[in-house]
Design a protein that fits this description.
- The chain has about 160 residues and is an all-beta fold.
- The protein has strands spanning about 5-10, 15-25, 35-40, 50-55, 65-70, 80-85, 105-115, 145-150, 150-155.
- The strands form 3 sheets. The chain has a 4-stranded antiparallel beta sheet, with no helix packed on it. A 3-stranded antiparallel beta sheet has the order 5-2-7, with no helix packed on it. Strands 8-9 form a two-stranded antiparallel sheet.
- Strand 8 (about 145-150) and strand 9 (about 150-155) form a beta hairpin.
- The radius of gyration is 21 Å and the shape is elongated.
Length: about 160
C-alpha cells in the first residue's frame, strides 16, 4: 500500500476514565473505503488496534460511523493518547483503486469519558457501602444511579 495514510489526533485524558470514541467519515467515489482506529500511549508508544473499530466508508456521512466505541482502560488518565484512523487498503468507495483525485473527510469526532477522581488500584475500605431507601416498586420511572469513585458515593433519583 506504500505510504501510511491516516487521520490523527492527540488527546489529554488525565482525570478521565471509561473513554469512548465517536466519528463520522466519508470519501469521494475514488477516495479510500477501508479504515481502522488505532491508539498508542505517548509519542513512544506502540500502535494497537481498537477492538470493534473498523470503518467502511461510502460517499456519505452515514456509512462510516463509529458510535461510542470503548477505548481500552490503558487510555484512561494519560497525558497524551494518540488516536489514528488509518487506511487499511487501496480500495476506493466505488470498488476500484484509490486515485490521486480521491478525497477523504472526517466530521463529528468526539472522545468522551467520565471526569472524576481516578482510582489507580482497587482497595478495600470499611464504610464504603450505603443503603438506598425510599424506592417504591409501584412508582414508575424510578431510576437510581450509584457511582463509587475514590470514596465518593453519588445517588440520583429521577
Amino acid at each position: 500500500m506504500g505510504t501510511l495514510k491516516y487521520w490523527q489526533v492527540i488527546v489529554n485524558t488525565q482525570n478521565y476514565f471509561d473513554l469512548t470514541v465517536s466519528s463520522k467519515q466519508r470519501s469521494s467515489n475514488t477516495g479510500p473505503r477501508d479504515f481502522k482506529l488505532q491508539y498508542k500511549i505517548g509519542a513512544g508508544g506502540t500502535w494497537t488496534d481498537v477492538s470493534g473499530a473498523t470503518v467502511t466508508v461510502a460517499n456519505d456521512f452515514t456509512s462510516g460511523v463509529l458510535s461510542n466505541v470503548a477505548l481500552p482502560a490503558e487510555c484512561d488518565n494519560q497525558s497524551s493518547v494518540y488516536l489514528r484512523w488509518i487506511m487499511t487498503s487501496n480500495t476506493s468507495v466505488n470498488n476500484s483503486t484509490v486515485t490521486n483525485a480521491g478525497t477523504s473527510r472526517m466530521d463529528d469526532l468526539f472522545v468522551t469519558g467520565y471526569e472524576g477522581d481516578y482510582v489507580v488500584y482497587n482497595q478495600s475500605e470499611s464504610g464504603l457501602f450505603s443503603d438506598i431507601t425510599g424506592l417504591n416498586a409501584s412508582t414508575t420511572c424510578t431510576t437510581v444511579f450509584v457511582q463509587l469513585m475514590a470514596h465518593t458515593l453519588q445517588t440520583t433519583t429521577m
